[in-house]
């Protein structure tokens, strides 16, 4: 009888360990899904969360909660111009292992902001990011338009959409002001422009190069995430939030330097 009881106890303990292991796996999956939700942005939407993006033959629109709107169009892809290569791009491969060390000053500023989170740039946390990241990232040759873009990003009223080669500006504005399929309105440089932006409810569309788009969307991604925090949608602890903020800051820095991922969507 004692042996039988021991066998039953051992079996029960084994089943308990297996159940705990399954629970750990499920918790990990839930965490991963939360990460997917919080990292799906207008610039790089997660296609598992937005199945409508799987079909290239349909035209529709979506707006990410708390983010910036972007229209999806089947006409977004440009044919390659004969004799002219596509704009060069660099795909940054993450390192297999990355050492990191938290800056106590930056973390303290983040914690102070998180206690009373707002989009007021007067806080030490946002003031630094505006000065070191947002300002430089949205500083283009066309300074007046750059300021309008920044205001639209802050007000969550910026729209980015793909365009076709045959698309024309919807207002009577000069080519210098609105750019064109082969000229970026922000940088003023001759580039193949696959996207255009609209600022609020204004009728003007501005053509932007892939590099300019990467810079704008990097800033949009940052604002989207801190809005999530402000609205209480992020369930991670403060340290995890802080590291995600730093990752988004790094995206802005990299985009400002001219690096961007190719995206035909």
Proportion of residues in β-strands = 5-15%
Strand order, largest beta sheet: 1-2-3-4-5
SSE succession: HEEHHHEHEEHH
Contiguous uncertain segments of 5+ residues: 50-67, 71-88, 167-176
Share of helix, binned: 40-55%
What structural class do you assign from the helix and strand content?
alpha+beta
Radius of gyration: 23 Å
- What is the CA–CA distance across the termini? 69 Å
Mean pLDDT over all positions: 77
The tally of helices reads 7
Largest sheet: 5 strands, mixed
Would you count the extended β strands for me?
5
Per the principal axes of the C-alpha atoms, what is the gross shape?
A: elongated
Q: Short summary of the structure?
A:
The chain has 265 residues and is of the alpha+beta class.
Description:
By secondary structure, the chain is α+β, with helices and mostly antiparallel strands. It has seven helices and five strands; from the N terminus they run αββαααβαββαα. It has a five-stranded mixed sheet. A hairpin with a 5-residue loop joins strand 4 (195-199) and strand 5. The longest helix is centred in the N-terminal third of the chain and has 38 residues, at 2-39. Residues 50-67, 71-88 and 167-176 have low confidence and may be disordered.
């Amino acid at each position: 009888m004692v042996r039988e009881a021991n066998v039953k106890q051992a079996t029960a303990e084994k089943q308990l360990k297996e159940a705990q292991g399954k629970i750990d796996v499920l918790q990990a999956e839930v965490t991963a899904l939360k990460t997917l939700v919080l990292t799906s942005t207008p610039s790089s939407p997660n296609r598992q969360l937005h199945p409508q993006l799987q079909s290239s033959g349909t035209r529709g629109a979506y707006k990410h909660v708390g983010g910036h709107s972007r229209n999806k169009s089947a006409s977004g892809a440009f044919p390659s111009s004969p004799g002219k290569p596509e704009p060069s791009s660099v795909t940054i491969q993450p390192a297999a292992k990355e050492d990191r060390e938290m800056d106590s000053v930056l973390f303290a500023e983040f914690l102070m902001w998180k206690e009373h989170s707002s989009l007021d740039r007067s806080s030490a946390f946002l003031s630094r990011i505006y000065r070191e990241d947002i300002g430089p990232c949205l500083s283009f040759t066309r300074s007046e338009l750059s300021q309008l873009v920044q205001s639209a990003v802050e007000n969550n009223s910026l729209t980015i959409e793909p365009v076709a080669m045959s698309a024309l500006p919807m207002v009577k504005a000069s080519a210098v002001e609105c750019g064109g399929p082969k000229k970026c309105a922000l940088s003023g440089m001759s580039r193949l422009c696959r996207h255009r932006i609209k600022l609020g409810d204004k009728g003007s569309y501005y053509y932007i190069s892939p590099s300019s788009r990467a810079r704008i969307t990097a800033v949009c991604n940052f604002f989207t995430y801190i809005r999530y925090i402000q609205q209480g949608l992020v369930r991670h602890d403060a340290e995890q939030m802080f590291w995600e903020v730093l990752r988004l800051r790094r995206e802005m820095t990299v985009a400002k330097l001219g690096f961007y991922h190719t995206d035909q969507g």
